[in-house]
Amino acid sequence: MSIKEPHNAGRSDSRILYGAGMSWSLILPWLGLLVVGFAYPVFKLLSGSFFDDGFTLVHYQRAVTEPLYTAVLLRTLRIALIVTVCALLVGYPIAYAISKLVRPWSMVVAACVLIPFWTSILVRSYAWIVLLQRKGLINTLLIDLGVTSEPLRLLYTEFAVILAMTHVLLPFLILPVYGALKTIPADLPMAAYNLGATPIKVFWKVVFPLSLPGVFAGCLITFILALGFYITPALVGGPNSLMMATLIGQQTTQVLNWPFAGALATILLITTVVLAVMFRTLLAKNRGFSSGI
Amino acid sequence: MRTSIAAKILFASFIALALFLMVLPTLIVFPMSVGTSNYLEFPPKGFTLDWFVAYFGDEEWMGATWFSLKVACATTLAATAIGTMASIALVRGRLPGKSLIYALTLSPMIIPHIVIAVALYLFFAPLRLTGNFYGFLIAHTLLAVPFVVLTVSAALQRFDPMLELAAQSCGANSIQTFYHVMLPGIVPGVAAGAVFAFLTSFDEATVAFFISGLEGKTITRKMFEDIDFNLTPIIAAVSTVIVGASLLLMTAVHFLQNRQRG
């Protein structure tokens, strides 16, 4: 998924064909929908968290002091971090492989990345339930290999949440890393080889540092998405792996404590927006790098 | 030299294992959907099409499927029209604060869906828009337009504005220029955007979970309920249908985008 700004933003050149009146009427339906279906409801949810017979911060106080809720906040951060690291450890080598392989092998690997990307999140959650249950494929395999004699309890644990979330988010890491690896001019590693560097040295001293913008961008988007994940943790996780999004959902539909749900949503939203701004800055740097060479 | 060959083999097996684990969850739903066993079992035994028959014969599943299809089709039309218009304004128009509008346009992709879901639920509930076709149309169009803007504005940037200028100086008005010059040039981008819009709506689970009602319920909400409460192999049959359809659609997009580039 690439986020590009129109190249002509703010420039007055031959690309500008429509005057202000025409432009506004073309974009008005979208701006209207953004305000009515997005900005207003989100604003209402967030502003509701500050009021309870007058202005108050009691809901925020509750979110960051009650042990039950701080545990959820910390767990969400921890799981998102672990998922990001796992996705990087598995995803980087895959992205590297796609950038190194020649057709048709690169296409095969890319297809293996894109097929799960295009598979419904519900289908994948269901598949992990099938694989991780007591008599599932993974337990059968572990018993056959002699790792364990009794089937392990894998489903409805934090392990299941981390595994399933890493699986869902891997493509979001692989695609930017692959993008960064592809922009590295082939002569740079070549020059290093000619100067007598070993393959490992070439990778760590030349290729890896040059791919860092893609790594940061991929990690950030993975982390952002992991923070707000709802469906997968709700299905494969248990009460001991409750995450932020599930808590917000519970507070809204079961507990009916909307101001508190709003406070949790505000915390999640602000964290996300701060990270997203960092993401954009990194992306801008990334672009500068690729055009600067 | 030997160590480097060993390292290569090790690296290749790691990649192979990782890729296998990546596609495994998608692939197992196919055998699961034709197994005869009533409960979860892998590898499944026997062969039956009973679960597909059960899916296509079940009123509630069919109701949810049709509801999802209706919402997705309407969303595709609305999002493609709104998104294409917005893209033209953003790429070819004179607007102040374009980069701010662009950031706002993409924000529904970045803001956690749980926040949008809860906000829309609280907004829709008093208006009786939960479980309602129009409620879903608003929510899903909002989520789909960013994808349309991404693909259509990319197509517009590759399309030579001189052609539009030529048409206009030959006396064509804006609408004629759009239909006869610009649209034929960007149609693969618009079509790709339309497919993304359809999939965004049909696949969307988080917002649909919150704004569904007892009557108006999407297939994703129905699947969530069934996975959570009674895991029957019908889910595998439904999954097979969905995976087959979305792989087909995405392959179509892939060719559309290649055609645009070529």
From TrEMBL, chain A:
Keywords: Cell membrane, Membrane, Transmembrane, Transmembrane helix, Transport
Organismal lineage: Bacteria, Pseudomonadati, Pseudomonadota, Alphaproteobacteria, Hyphomicrobiales
Residues that span the membrane, as ranges: 21-43, 77-98, 105-129, 159-181, 202-235, 255-279
Protein name from the UniProt record: ABC transporter permease
Main subcellular localisation: membrane
Domain of life of the source: Bacteria
Species in which this protein is naturally found: Hoeflea poritis
Topology of this chain in the membrane: Multi-pass membrane protein
Keyword Nucleotide-binding: no
Record family assignment: Belongs to the binding-protein-dependent transport system permease family. CysTW subfamily.
Cellular location(s): Cell membrane
InterPro entries in the cross-refs: MetI-like, MetI-like_sf
PANTHER family in the cross-refs: ABC TRANSPORTER PERMEASE PROTEIN (PTHR42929:SF5), INNER MEMBRANE ABC TRANSPORTER PERMEASE PROTEIN YDCU-RELATED-RELATED (PTHR42929)
ABC transmembrane type-1 domain segment(s): 73-279
